[in-house]
Write a structure and sequence with these properties.
Layout lengths: L1 E2 L2 E2 H17 L3 E11 L3 E11 L2 H8 L4 E11 L7 E15 L4 E6 L2 E5 L2 H8 L1 E9 L9 E9 L6 H8 L10 E6 L13 E3 L3
Antiparallel strand pairs: 1-2, 3-4, 4-9, 5-6, 5-10, 6-7, 7-8, 10-11, 11-12
Length: about 200
């Protein structure tokens, strides 16, 4: 059987290859093992992120454009008589860039930065969030159960205006994880057994 002068099997193979190429180029972020643990001064958050950049984002970084990755954390408390109470909302920004003079990729958070020989090495560190203090112990009520949520996203608003215009109209720049949510109590050292984190819709 032929279609448009080409064997149907050949056409199907071409369509499959195009689809596979599109999937391979997709950029996404997923979250694994988010946990809250008790620290010296409060509660700290740890999580692992699977970060997949597409060819467009890799090329942009290699040309010296900084990408801003933001980790958002929220804690809410259910109230039967009213809307849920938002206890706290915090964000942390991590900058991924490439410096041609040193031929190194760099991760920066505030005044702290670290250099890497390859993009894979930089992404490996970016994907590991460890011991970020998100709560003071005094901010939680004993005996209460809270809903914790975390996500990572690429923040386009911090990029140069010329890139923002192109990025908003291009799916290649749409990079954000879903919210991972789990129940948490002040007496818990981490995510409670039997209540594994779940992915929710992004906001």
């Amino acid at each position: 059987m032929r279609c448009c002068g080409r064997p149907l099997s050949s056409l199907l193979v071409s369509v499959f290859l195009l689809f596979a190429s599109a999937v391979a180029q997709a950029a996404d972020i997923t979250i694994r093992n988010p946990q809250i643990a008790a620290g010296e001064d409060g509660y700290v958050l740890s999580a692992d992120f699977n970060i997949n950049l597409n060819a467009r984002l890799e090329e942009v970084v290699a040309k010296g454009v900084t990408l801003y990755f933001v980790v958002d954390f929220e804690l809410t408390r259910a109230r039967w008589y009213w809307l849920d109470e938002q206890v706290i909302s915090r964000s942390q920004t991590l900058q991924l860039s490439y410096h041609a003079l040193t031929r190194q990729y760099r991760l920066s958070s505030g005044a702290l930065h670290q250099g890497f020989a390859t993009l894979d090495e930089a992404l490996r560190i970016l994907s590991r969030l460890r011991n970020w203090q998100v709560l003071d112990k005094a901010s939680l009520a004993s005996g209460q159960t809270y809903l914790a949520a975390v996500r990572m996203r690429l923040d386009l608003t911090q990029m140069p205006k010329t890139f923002q215009v192109n990025a908003l109209a291009n799916r290649d720049w749409n990079l954000t994880s879903e919210w991972a949510r789990w129940n948490f109590g002040p007496g818990d050292l981490a995510s409670p057994a039997g209540s594994p984190p779940t992915a929710g819709d992004g906001k």
